[in-house]
Design goal:
By secondary structure, the protein is an alpha/beta fold. The protein is built from nine helices and nine strands. The strands form two sheets. The protein has a seven-stranded mixed beta sheet, with helices on both faces. Strands 1-2 form a two-stranded antiparallel ribbon. Pfam families: Carboxyl_trans (PF01039).
Length: 283
């Protein structure tokens, strides 16, 4: 009968409710090929699926633990956070949106600055968090990058930005777009000081980020398979009325066209960054 499983007691198939255990959320991860791996195994492999090499999207917390020696670093400018300067409202007010995303992510904006050592090489790293309004560029991101560059110049340190963003933050309108010029002018000062700037492009890196400082680094690295571009492929296809090349806007495609210097797996990024610093800073 369809309901025979209710009679398990008569078949000595019983499970005490006291012995039942809930499976914690996030304990397992499903790969692109459909296979399942344990979260701790994924974490031990720098959040790269050992089955198919897929790079699971991570944030600043995970990137800092991967890059900084023994996960020891000092966060810079941790109290700089977004405010609603324009009283902007779309489906909800920007103020409410900020409150919600801050509570959900435990972050105060879409980028964090930190200083520490990477295989013994001291440097400053700014890492974007895509979970905070799509890693969007607003006035706080521009200001925090400015402060990070000033810190590098004052302390003669190399600089790295980990990019993962959908572009400018629409809720800040022109204030957001002004950050592009602000960041580029500070990076020009970094270059004039003879200090190294590395960009690591993750999935996705789009919009004004790609149109500016993501593509003006001394060394541009990218994760395998990352989508990188200005406008999305659907918009471009509809604009030009043609099919796009296979693999268009992937990091591999951009490396072939000369826009990216290296494709670097996340499992190799720490060694690649430290070797680059030693070669270009200490040589």
């Amino acid at each position: 009968m369809a309901f025979d499983w209710f009679k398990r007691k008569t078949q000595n198939i019983t499970t005490s409710t006291e012995d039942k255990k809930d499976v914690p959320k996030g304990l397992w991860h499903q790969t692109m090929t459909g296979k399942v791996i344990e979260h701790e195994e994924l974490k031990a492999n720098n959040y790269v699926s050992p089955e198919d090499g897929f790079h699971v999207r991570i944030g600043s917390r995970e990137f800092f633990s991967i890059l900084f020696d023994e996960n020891k670093f000092t966060e810079l400018d941790a109290n700089v956070e977004s405010v609603d300067m324009l009283n902007f409202k779309d489906t909800k007010s920007y103020t409410d949106r900020l409150k919600e995303v801050k509570a959900k992510t435990k972050l105060i904006d879409s980028i964090r600055n930190a200083v520490g050592t990477v295989n013994g090489e001291k440097m400053v790293i700014s890492c974007m968090d895509f979970s905070f309004i799509g890693g969007s560029l607003g006035s706080v991101m521009g200001e925090k990058i400015r402060r990070a560059v000033d810190y590098c110049i004052a302390n003669k340190l190399p600089y790295m930005i980990i990019c993962q963003s959908g572009g400018a933050r629409m809720q800040e309108a022109t204030y957001s777009l002004m950050q592009l010029a602000k960041v580029q002018s500070k990076l020009a000062q970094l270059s004039e000081a003879g200090l190294l700037y590395i960009a690591y492009l993750c999935d996705p890196t789009f919009g004004g980020i790609t149109a500016s400082f993501a593509m003006t680094a001394d060394i541009i690295m990218a994760e395998p398979g990352a989508l990188i571009g200005f406008a999305g492929p659907r918009v471009i296809r509809e604009t030009i009325g043609k099919d796009l090349p296979e693999g268009f806007q992937t990091s591999e495609f951009l490396q072939e066209k000369g826009f990216v210097d290296f494709i670097v797996k996340r499992t190799e990024i720490k060694d690649k960054v430290s070797k680059t610093v030693r070669l270009l800073v200490h040589a």
